[in-house]
């Protein structure tokens, strides 16, 4: 039996724009998908991983580091040589998020016409973030002042009009982590701590803040290999508050053991907290919930210090 850590996060309510989608004419669009028959905006798991890697860098050295001056990634070991031996130096981001080097087949036939790939599968898996409420089609009109950037209008004195799709909402996403697959098992706790303290994620969020730190989180530390709690959050009042009927149903069906769950909420008096407390689920503030999860993971893995 292996230890598994699962979690589902939901962000505070905020205004999102330009989640790395394509533009259509002079409109910057949101990424969208159909979710239970309605159009929702979405943020990719890759964008969350990028932000997480930067948070992990505060805990220990990462292999890939974003250089703001160069506007590019800088590698410490781009061939991942540390993984060749059991005692080699490895990095927290490679250990948790995996890596891949794909080599195309050489035309001279020296490799029998076959390419090669060096791959480490991610131990920490992250779902795509999906908006808690459907996107209603909001678009804002904007105008950049002439010469606002070197690439903006270079002639004339008129403002440059453009539109932006926006979505006032919350986002939810989930994770799965199997600490036994890590080279260094202490990194499991560092991952949970980084996710509970995630700030900005993706696109225009880099310029206009959208807080991706959890407003509510449910964590599960278990021997069960299935998460059973992904996308468990919902809302009945357009995102003002968060509820979780799916989680309550799972508890009522005894598919989830309340002793395996840890819930963190920013409002300890909210309905979500009351519903879960009534089912013997421990409820804390978000930071305290993170500390409790780290404590349980460390104890289960028998990590000292």
TrEMBL record:
It holds the Pfam family DevR. InterPro entries: Cas7/Cst2/DevR_bac, Cas7/Cst2/DevR_sub_I-B/Tneap, CRISPR-assoc_Cas7/Cst2/DevR. One of its GO terms (biological process) is defense response to virus. Keywords: Antiviral defense. The keyword Transcription does not apply. Signal peptide: none annotated. CRISPR (clustered regularly interspaced short palindromic repeat) is an adaptive immune system that provides protection against mobile genetic elements (viruses, transposable elements and conjugative plasmids). CRISPR clusters contain spacers, sequences complementary to antecedent mobile elements, and target invading nucleic acids. CRISPR clusters are transcribed and processed into CRISPR RNA (crRNA). This is CRISPR-associated autoregulator DevR family.
